[in-house]
Design goal:
The protein has 241 residues and is of the alpha+beta class. 19% of the residues lie in helices and 37% in strands.
Length: 241
């Protein structure tokens, strides 16, 4: 939930996330599919709050959470509800954008959601006082770094690494992107895989690769050295759109 990239590669959309957490936090359960609001959604479940930072639905929708919004905030717990549960509320809604616009976020910690629907990409933010909705070009390539962990200088440095990766990798494959996310650039403080002396560490890398007819979902648990993979077939009604 602390580094997210979106890459448009031919007929594929590759969405990848690194989850950075304190080593005292319990590891998440392996991804499983659940029926929420009548639709099949697959996600790794946070053991502490029951929410998630990365979810994909059978309707071709992928939502990914980052901690923080535009700038680093000062936490003021207790909060009313986990941001990971808010993410599930959004992706499981019949109309996720309408859901985000109407959902009550008072006393919810600031967050950013990268939200992809077939043919559309949105950046949804809550800064603790105001919501922001921004549509992006889904044929573009983007990277986000959590405002809570990385200052402006580091965010710019990481974006430069991403831009260089895109410039030197013609039509990157999902494996290419996964390797990029797994590289710490010899920097355990601000690389893509971190291991800070404060106890913050990269727990996992999760990736969804969407095509016209399916989503390939891959979750790599770096702490337990385990990988989970599943393919979600999309409905024919969606394929024929």
């Amino acid at each position: 939930m602390c580094t997210v990239s979106f890459i448009s590669a031919g007929n594929k959309k590759i969405i990848t996330s690194n989850r950075d957490e304190n080593i005292l936090r319990p590891t998440a359960a392996a991804p499983m599919a659940e029926i929420i609001n009548g639709q099949k959604i697959i996600f790794p479940k946070d053991a502490k709050a029951g929410g998630t930072w990365f979810a994909a639905s059978e309707w071709g929708v992928v939502s990914v959470l980052l901690n923080g919004a535009l700038v680093k905030h000062i936490p003021v717990p207790p909060y009313r509800k986990s941001r990971g549960l808010i993410l599930l509320d959004i992706i499981a809604a019949a109309d996720p954008l309408t859901s985000f616009a109407g959902i009550d976020l008072q006393n919810i910690e600031p967050f950013t959601v990268v939200h992809y629907m077939p043919g559309q990409l949105f950046e949804l933010r809550w800064d603790g006082n105001k919501k922001y909705e921004k549509e992006l070009d889904d044929s573009g390539n983007y990277i986000w770094s959590s405002a809570t962990l990385y200052n402006e200088e580091v965010v710019a440095y990481r974006k430069d690494l991403f831009d260089r990766f895109m410039e030197t990798t013609a039509t990157p494959s999902p494996d290419d992107v996964h390797r990029f996310h797994a590289h710490n650039n010899n920097d355990e403080e601000n690389g893509f895989v971190i291991n800070r002396g404060t106890g913050l560490k990269t727990f996992s890398i999760t990736q969804a690769v969407t095509t016209q007819d399916k989503i390939n979902f891959k979750h790599s648990d770096l702490l337990q050295d385990k990988t989970f993979e599943e393919t979600i077939q999309l409905p024919h009604s969606l394929i024929n759109l």
